[in-house]
Amino acid sequence: MTELGAQSVSDRTSRPGSAVAPPRILVVEDEAALSLLLAYNIEAEGFAVERVERGDEAELRLIESPPDLVILDWMLPGVSGLEVCRRMRAREATRTLPVIMLTARGDESERVRGLTIGADDYIVKPFSVPELMARVRALLRRSRPDRVAALLVAGDIALDRENWRVVRSSRSVHLGPTEFRLLEYLMGKPGRVFSRAQLLDGIWGLSAEIDERTVDVHVGRLRKALALAGERDPIRTIRGAGYSFDETFGKSD
C-alpha cells in the first residue's frame, strides 16, 4: 500500500467499533428546523449531539458538562449567544472550548465583533451544511486530535480528510469534490442507508435546487472511480430506499 494506506493502522484511523468516545457537540439554536437539521448532520458524522434553545440553558450545560465544541446562534432567548460566548471565555473550564457562531448578521463589523468576543469561527445564515460540517471537523482536529480521525479506512480503501486524498490498495483514486464528500459521508456510517433526499441535504445542503436523480449520477461516478478492473464495489443500492456503504466491505475479502 501507499504511505496513506500504511497510515491506516495508526491511531488517526477511524474504524467501526472504536473504543474512542465520539466528540460531543452542543447546538444552541432556537430555530427548531435548523436545530434538527444540524443535529442530523452532526450525528451522521459519528459525533454525539445535544440541543438547547435558550442562552441560559446553554450556560447550565456548559457549567455541568462542557462539550468538545459549541455551535452557537447569535440571537437567542434568555441570554444572547454573544454574551454566552463572552462568559465562556471568562471561565477556566470553557476558555479554550471551540465555538462556531451562527448569525444572520453579515456585516464585517459584526463578524469582527463576534470573533473579538471569542468565537473561533463565524458563519452567516443561510449557509451550506457541508461547509459548516467541514469547519466543525477542522476545529475539532485542531482542538481534539485524539477524538477526530483524519483517516477513514474500510478494507483496502483509505480516505484522508486533511489532504482530500483517497487510496485503494496501491493506487490513488481520483475523485471530484462532490464524489469525495459523498464517499466520506457514506464511509462515516457504514451500513446506514441514506435516501437520495438525505444525501442531497447532507452533501449539497437544503438550499440547493437539485433533482434527486443527480445523486444517482454522482454515485455512478464514484463507483466507476472506486471499482476498476473488477474490484469489489463498496456502495450498495437498496431498491426504493437509497444507498449505503457496505458494512461488510473488507471483512470478508
Q: Taking strands numbered 1, 2, ... along the chain, how are they ordered across the largest sheet?
A: 1-7-8-9-10
- Total helical segments: 9
Unreliable residue stretches: 5-20
Rg result: 19 Å
Overall residue-averaged pLDDT value: 83
Question: So what's the overall shape?
Answer: elongated
Q: What's the number of domains?
A: 2
Amount of helix: 25-40%
Descriptive terms for the model:
five-stranded parallel sheet; Arc Repressor Mutant, subunit A; 38% helix; 19% strand; 253 residues; 12 strands; single chain; alpha/beta
Verbal overview:
This protein is of the alpha/beta class. It folds into two domains: 109 residues, Winged helix-like DNA-binding domain superfamily/Winged helix DNA-binding domain (Arc Repressor Mutant, subunit A), CATH 1.10.10.10; 120 residues, 3-Layer(aba) Sandwich (Rossmann fold). 38% of the residues lie in helices and 19% in strands. The protein has nine helices and twelve strands. It has a five-stranded mixed sheet, covered by helices on one side. A five-stranded parallel sheet has the order 3-2-4-5-6, sandwiched between helices. Strands 11-12 form a two-stranded antiparallel sheet. A hairpin with a 3-residue loop joins strand 11 and strand 12. Helix 3 runs parallel beside helix 4 and helix 7 packs across helix 8. It starts with a helix and ends in an 8-residue tail after the last strand. About 6% of the residues have low confidence.
